Task: inverse folding
């Protein structure tokens, strides 16, 4: 059976007037925490097997199989920690906030299930610093959960007491990178760590740690309730389950929508987001600006974890789709994207620290009308030397910046080339002081 | 022993080591900025990335090629591994990193103190490109006065964070930190907490570029004029290994010399900045009763003074006060000389200054001891005590000497004085009542002023010899600069008084000691300087 209505957003109606915050009592009344009760009667290994069988892949961007990640924990190393990645900072991405704004307990139930399955003692919800409203909501929901024995209790059959805390970030995109998150959680500067050791072996406070996205964990109650086969029936063979899609940009009805993985972007835009606004579709970013751009001929791209291979983008990312119509200044768009990366680069690795700022300066110049013909090749070369050659930096931020630049240049070269003129044509003195 | 092939060259390594460290130990240079053998690995400069392949653990005849470029500073070396640092991919990365580091780096090498010993310059020649393709404005960052000894030129900084890690891991004081983010980030100190710890000067040594500069050395000398001489610190009992860096008879700076057992890569600021006395307020006139004399007369007079005392008052009427600042050979020759005149001459140690207790620095995380500043502020107490024990017979300490002097038991004494200020008060008081006094000193003091004979001698930088540290480790050092005009080393004076022929060399002193019952000293030499890794590869024109 394929997708038959909202799973994650089942408590959040489409009509904004009818949306409300589900507190503990409301959550219980709509079948909440039933999955947790069911799980506590199971063996932890069976829960992990269930998640592996469901084919649930991480919703945070990389799409790593969730159950497989769990199996990386060393057998006899305790305590173990869970870090919930709620540092949702990618431009165009607001799905987790929408979910927590109305239904915080679905996350807490998911955390409780993951904590039981992996014998985790402490879970940290690392929440983006700017999400102060959601931090308060989660604090309140956590207090209710503690009150009703969801946390602060021993996992059945063990001596491990499950705790959960909300930890607020301080406003850095890089702290959404899993090891940057761990550093920040430990109270350090959010500089991604070099690996190995991997977080599953030595993560937060040098203990085995699992890092999962909010949406990934929010899928768990449904998987437990309906079973792995039900979950796997949705989506495509390699990308199973429902997915939250945030749609923004030039659409008539921006917002967060739930659909199964693998739906066509055109369907998402037309059926859910009310169609393209102010003109015709020209380009779209599939999932957060680090994933690159989909071209005009890729309107029907299937939004699943294979999108990268099929459509020459980095991946599905967070599925925060940004739609651009045919009147969009794509050079200006790319300038904004690169400005974001230049601003958010943590400054640890040389190529990313210097390269993002360099690309930003070049794009600034092009937008200001001082671009020269060789700037196109310079940009193209920069994004190749900076990280498109994978692994030249510690984390993936440089790759993200590069994929954005690279795909914009590849798919819309004329937008750039038409803005580039030699200095003679620009009427600027060739010798003497530079223009930039 | 496991072996590895780096760019076609076989190298061996022992134990668990990273590729880069194994290469450096084997004398093969891979480019690196953020990596320092004494600090934790951050793998952030990204210039050490290499291509590598390693044997398949299941079938060692098969090699597995690692698809990505790997950071050699962070990847463990494996037996049978093949590393390619000059492959097109690795070279492209080196070129890219060099370009990135230089786009915001000011082109002020002509006025930069680091020029000539700068990794950025060296690697730029070897791995970089000849011209800049950067047309934008360079980021402008300020110069900062971050501590009593150190200046920070933020615009030259390449954010390797070695200095930050040093203050976290070695000094344990954490004054330095990274502020800001991305290309706007800077190293800085916290407000009101300057980089003021006893090891602060080391950050200048580990800075691979000219960002951290030594105020003491600032703009005084271009480094390519400096000659460096292996030496031992004369300022404490630790026996820290140093280089004296000098030009045309003047010292410009002192740098640490790596010794795994003693000071590793570091020295304290006392040692680094303590050399000033070599060029200040020196005694350079031979004075006898207010009248200048020449060396021949002076030596004859010194000898005569002692012989006269023995002749008049019998054996045991002379004393030799040894200083823990002199080399062991000098003390041996002096003691041998005085005992040849007066077989019951008293041998006395002028006790070195002790300041508080040993100051130990630890890595706050691991608890490992990283550096110890010794409380005893003289390099050779052990040597002096060994000489006194070797000659045995009449020995006493300084307070007994004072009693004997006031009791009138002495007719003459020779004093070998400390070269460093503020330590001779005790001797001065002890010998207050003695008129028939000969003093060998490197600087004018109250004692040289009232002595019957004052002889100007060299400081440690102007002579060679051995010092024995607190743990009994005997280490030789070389002469760095020519002695100040009209000064002799104490060794040369007693060598000639003993009637030995030829110019005195400390090696002759050690050979003599070896022959005469102190075999530990005979074979001690300054360790050969490791061949400096040849960085530049010029092709013949």
Result:
């Amino acid at each position: 059976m394929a997708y038959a209505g909202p799973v994650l957003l089942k408590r959040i109606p489409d009509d904004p007037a009818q949306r409300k915050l589900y507190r503990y009592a409301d959550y219980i009344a709509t079948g909440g925490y039933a999955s947790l009760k069911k799980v506590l009667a199971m063996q932890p290994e069976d829960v992990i097997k269930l998640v592996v069988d469901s084919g649930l892949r991480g919703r945070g961007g990389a799409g790593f199989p969730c159950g497989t990640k769990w199996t990386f924990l060393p057998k006899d190393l305790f305590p173990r920690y869970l870090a919930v990645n709620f540092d949702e900072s990618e431009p165009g991405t607001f799905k987790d906030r929408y979910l927590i704004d109305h239904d915080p307990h679905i996350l807490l139930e998911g955390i409780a299930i993951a904590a039981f399955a992996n014998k985790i003692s402490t879970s940290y919800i690392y929440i983006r610093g700017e999400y102060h409203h959601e931090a308060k909501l989660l604090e309140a929901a956590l207090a209710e959960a503690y009150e009703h024995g969801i946390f602060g209790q021993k996992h059945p059959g063990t001596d491990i007491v499950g705790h959960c805390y909300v930890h607020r970030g301080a406003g850095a995109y890089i702290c959404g990178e899993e090891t940057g998150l761990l550093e920040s959680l430990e109270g350090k500067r959010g500089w991604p760590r070099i690996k190995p050791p991997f977080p599953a072996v030595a993560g937060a406070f040098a203990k085995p740690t699992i890092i999962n996205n909010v949406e990934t964990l929010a899928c768990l109650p449904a998987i437990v309730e309906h079973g792995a086969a039900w979950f796997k029936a949705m989506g495509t063979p390699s990308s199973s389950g429902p997915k939250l899609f945030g749609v923004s940009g030039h659409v008539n009805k921006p917002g967060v929508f739930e659909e199964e993985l693998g739906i066509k972007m055109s369907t998402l835009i037309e059926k859910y987001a009310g169609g393209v606004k102010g003109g015709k579709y020209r380009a779209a970013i599939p999932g957060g600006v680090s994933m690159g751009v989909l071209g005009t001929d890729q309107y029907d791209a299937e939004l699943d974890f294979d999108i990268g291979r099929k459509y020459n983008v980095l991946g599905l990312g967070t599925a925060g789709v940004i739609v651009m119509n045919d009147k969009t200044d794509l050079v200006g768009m790319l300038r904004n994207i690169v400005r974001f990366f230049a601003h958010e680069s943590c400054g640890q690795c040389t190529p990313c620290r210097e390269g993002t700022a360099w690309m930003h300066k070049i794009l600034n110049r092009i937008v200001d009308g001082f671009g020269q013909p060789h700037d196109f090749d310079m940009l193209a070369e920069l994004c190749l030397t900076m990280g498109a050659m994978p692994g030249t930096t510690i984390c993936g931020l440089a790759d993200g910046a590069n994929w954005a630049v690279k795909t914009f240049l590849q798919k819309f070269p004329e937008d750039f080339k038409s803005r580039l003129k030699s200095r003679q044509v620009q009427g600027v003195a060739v010798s003497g002081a530079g223009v930039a | 022993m496991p072996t590895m092939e780096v760019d076609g060259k076989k190298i061996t390594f022992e134990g668990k080591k990273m590729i880069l460290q194994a290469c450096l130990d084997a004398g093969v240079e891979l480019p690196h900025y953020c990596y320092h053998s004494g600090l934790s690995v951050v793998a952030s400069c990204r210039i050490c990335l290499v291509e590598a392949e390693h044997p398949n653990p299941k079938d060692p005849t098969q090699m597995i090629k690692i698809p990505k470029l790997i950071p050699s500073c962070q990847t463990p070396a494996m037996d049978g591994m093949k590393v390619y640092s000059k492959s097109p991919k690795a070279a492209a990365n080196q070129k890219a990193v060099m370009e990135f580091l230089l786009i915001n780096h000011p082109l002020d090498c002509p006025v930069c103190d680091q020029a000539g010993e700068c990794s950025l310059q060296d690697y730029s020649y070897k791995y970089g490109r000849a011209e800049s393709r950067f047309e934008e404005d360079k980021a402008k960052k300020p110069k900062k006065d971050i501590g009593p000894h150190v200046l920070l030129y933020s615009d030259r900084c390449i954010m390797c964070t070695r200095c930050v890690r040093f203050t976290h891991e070695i000094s344990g004081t954490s004054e330095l930190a990274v502020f800001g983010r991305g290309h706007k980030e800077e190293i800085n100190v916290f407000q009101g907490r300057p980089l003021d710890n006893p090891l602060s000067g080391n950050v200048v040594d580990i800075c691979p570029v000219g960002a951290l500069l030594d105020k003491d050395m600032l703009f005084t000398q271009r480094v390519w004029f400096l000659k460096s001489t292996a030496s031992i610190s004369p300022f404490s009992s630790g026996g820290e290994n140093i280089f004296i860096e000098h030009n045309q008879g003047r010292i410009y700076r002192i740098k640490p010399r790596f010794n795994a057992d003693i000071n590793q890569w570091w020295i304290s600021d006392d040692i680094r900045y303590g050399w000033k006395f070599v060029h200040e307020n020196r005694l350079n006139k031979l004075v006898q009763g207010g009248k200048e004399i020449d060396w021949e007369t002076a030596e004859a007079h010194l000898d005569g003074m002692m012989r006269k005392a023995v002749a008049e008052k019998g054996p045991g009427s002379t004393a030799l006060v040894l200083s823990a600042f002199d080399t062991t050979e000098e003390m041996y020759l002096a003691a041998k000389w005085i005992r040849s005149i007066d077989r019951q001459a008293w041998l006395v140690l002028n006790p070195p200054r002790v300041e508080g207790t040993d100051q130990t620095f630890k890595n706050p995380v691991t608890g490992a001891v990283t550096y110890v500043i010794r409380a005893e502020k003289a390099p050779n107490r052990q040597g002096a005590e060994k000489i006194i024990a070797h000659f045995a017979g009449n020995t006493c300490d300084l307070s007994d000497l004072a009693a004997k002097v006031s009791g009138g038991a002495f007719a003459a004494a020779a004093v070998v004085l400390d070269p460093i200020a503020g330590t001779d008060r005790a001797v001065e008081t002890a010998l207050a009542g003695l008129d028939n006094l000969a003093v060998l000193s490197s600087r004018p003091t109250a004692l040289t002023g009232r002595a019957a004979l004052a002889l100007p001698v060299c400081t440690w930088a102007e002579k060679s010899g051995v010092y024995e540290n607190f743990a009994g480790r005997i280490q030789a050092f070389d002469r760095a600069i020519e002695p100040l005009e009209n000064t002799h080393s104490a060794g040369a004076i007693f060598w000639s008084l003993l009637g030995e022929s030829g110019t005195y060399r400390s090696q002759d002193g050690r050979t003599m000691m070896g022959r005469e019952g102190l075999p530990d000293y005979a074979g001690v030499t300054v360790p050969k300087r490791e061949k400096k890794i040849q960085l530049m590869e010029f092709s013949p024109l």
In short: The CA atoms of residues 229 and 330 of chain B lie 20 Å apart. The domain at 3-95 of chain B is CATH 3.10.20.740 (Ubiquitin-like (UB roll)). The radius of gyration of chain B is 28 Å. Chain B has 14 helices and 26 strands.
